[in-house]
Description:
By secondary structure, this protein is α/β, with parallel strands linked by helices.
Amino acid sequence: MMKREMFEIARIYVPVKRRATLEQAKVDALAASILAEGMQTPILVRPDGERFVLVEGLHRLEAAKALGETMIAGYRVSARKH
Length: 82
């Protein structure tokens, strides 16, 4: 079972292809939701040397940044190649 952890937002890298899918309206709506109810679904990251690469949760990550957060809840997943 995966263990929920807190990750430093500054250490999370967002791949260019994933960043291209960003929709500001979703970020704004999520930021409002996070303020009201807290982060409901943690992000997913995979280790990459000294940083982490975002696997899932771009809009949640950007909403947390917009709120001035420096840490975000997430799960560390392994980078398995098929």
